[in-house]
Each structure stands twice: as C-alpha cells, then as structure tokens.
C-alpha cells in the first residue's frame, strides 16, 4: 500500500572522505535539479556512485567496496549526506572502515550518528533510482542483465528484496554442492529444497507484483505524443508462470516437487535450471508492438529512459517518497526535442535529480532552473557563466 506523499527530501550537503578520486569534499547544494559538468575522468560519476550507496547493494557500478577507497589512501572511505525532509534534517552516513590492519574491512551505516545494521535502514528516509550508460545495451544483452535491472526496480519499493535474493542465491549454491558431493542424502536435499522453494516464491512474487504495478502505471499515464515511447512488460520463466497461476502455498509445494524431480538433471548441469535465477523480463516497444531488442538504438535509449521515469513515478506513489534520480550522461545522445522532454518530465516527478554531462551546453535549457556545478579532479564548484 502506498504511503501518504510528503514533501520530497532534498540533499543539501554531500561530504566525501577518501572516496574514489576525492581526498575530501564538502559540497552544499540547494536546488532540486543538479547538473554536474566536466571532462571525462573528472569524477562526475564518482559523485553519483557515492549517492547510490544509500541503497542496499554495491551501488551503480556494482563494484566491491574496497575498490571505492581512494588510491593511494588509508584503505577506507566515508560518505555522508544531509537530508532536508518534511520532518526536519537528517544525516545519513556510510562507508568502509578498517578496525585494525589485520581486520577485514567493515561496512558502516549510520543515521543521525547512530549505527544501523544495514543500508536497508536508509529506506525510511530516501529512495534512489538511476540510469547509466552501461544499461544502453540492456534489451540486446543477456537475460541476467535484465534480471538485475528488474531486481533494482523491486528493491526501490521493497528494501528487503535484496536480502531475499541474496539468501536464495546462497541456498541454491548449497543445493548445488549437496547434489555434487552427496546426491543420495535425501534429508539434506529435502531441507535445502524447502528453503529454496520458500525464498524462490517470495522473490518471484515480489518481481511479479512490481512488474504488474509498473505496467498498470505505464498504461494509465500513456502519452502517444511523449518523446519517450511507452513499454509493455512481462516476465518469462517457469517459476513466473507458477506464481501467476497458483496461490503462494500451492506454488511453493509445486516448485519443491520440481526441484525433487530435477535433481539428476540439475546435478548433470551443475546448477539449478528452474527458478527465479532463470527469469527474463521481456520488454516491448509499445507504439510499434515489437520486441525492444528490434528497435533502433535511439528508440531503445528513449524506451529505457521512459521506463526509468515511470519507475521513479511508481516508487513515489508506492512509498510516499519521491526518489532521488541519478542520470549519468543521459542527455548526451538525445536530440533537442527529447532532451527538453526529459528535463520537463524530471521537474514534474518531484524528486531531486543529479545529472552528469561533459558538455555544459547540454544543460543550457535549464538556465535558472538547475544548479550547474563544474567538476574537476578532486574538486566541485559552481560553473561560472
């Protein structure tokens, strides 16, 4: 159920210590639209990555945390943001901390100075969606890329989804090891398959609910004159058919039987062949009614942007928190009409937007409507007229 919408949170201060190319940075911002301009390699994407770490997971680059520490440097890093919300200011912090030279680096998460168990605690204060150039080949790439994209969609509205996906992956690895090492140990296999089935149905159900809600929102807000064509969405996989056609308890029992019957086949394959780990998200170009993979490069880019913008709207309606939107180099390959349409849509969504681009002219249409900042290695300052 959607929460009651409130005034969108606004990041008013970003502090970095030993993060990527930044030895230290204390950046104050005051506008809902923030444009970061600078040469390639200046550190623009590093700022978006720092913000993306306030979501569960490894951020928009999917890098190991240790890779984010400045080199050379002490081996850890710290990030904090000050949020201006309808209920007052809050300070969120995360980073990588080394307790001793022998200890393993530990992730830290804090809210208003108090330690919290994981980044999931940040979901009470903010939600984040993003789009990076790495996703440009999403519709032509492997199913695994679309599955990760889908899970990020779910995670933005259900902060526990990532934990369930991780638990499912661990359970599947355990089953695979038992099949390889002790294939006749029925007690172990029965126990692990019970756990796998429970987690699998929960993961598949969360994905299905999010896709259904997003598809309904896209249909209800469809605008054939928009520069970003609408998408139609569906899930493809045996487990998805199971969840769509049976109550959860029946689907769990049925999937457990599938796992039992497929033990020999899965052992030969070295992996579990049926389950949420084999799901694909099918996307079609709505106006042309063709698979997104067959659309032109420009059409795929516009379709992807439209999908992310619709997702941002869904996050706001379901959680009551207009999400922060991180857009890395998104305007560079858009024609003037689509660029203007993008900026106009972003202003209506309500959430704070952080965008990057190498050419300041890309944001010329936002003069007086955005805070434009010049990024040079290790530094950020207002762009001079």
Q: What features would you describe in this structure?
A:
ATP binds at residues 38-45. This is DNA replication and repair protein RecF. Belongs to the RecF family. The RecF protein is involved in DNA metabolism; it is required for DNA replication and normal SOS inducibility. RecF binds preferentially to single-stranded, linear DNA. It also seems to bind ATP. By secondary structure, this protein is an alpha/beta fold. The chain has a domain at 136-320: Glutathione S-transferase Yfyf (Class Pi), Chain A, domain 2 (Up-down Bundle). It has helices spanning 44-52, 65-68, 143-157, 161-181, 186-220, 238-245, 248-261, 263-269, 297-319, 336-349, and strands at residues 10-19, 22-28, 33-37, 77-85, 88-97, 106-111, 114-115, 128-131, 231-236, 280-285, 290-291, 324-327, 353-357, 371-376, 379-382. The strands form three sheets. It has a six-stranded antiparallel sheet. It has a six-stranded mixed sheet with strand order 8-12-13-3-14-15, with helices on both faces. α3 packs across α5 and α9 (297-319) packs parallel to α10 (336-349). The longest helix has 35 residues, at 186-220. The radius of gyration is 22 Å and the shape is globular. The N and C termini lie far apart (46 Å). Mean pLDDT is 93; it is low at 1-5.
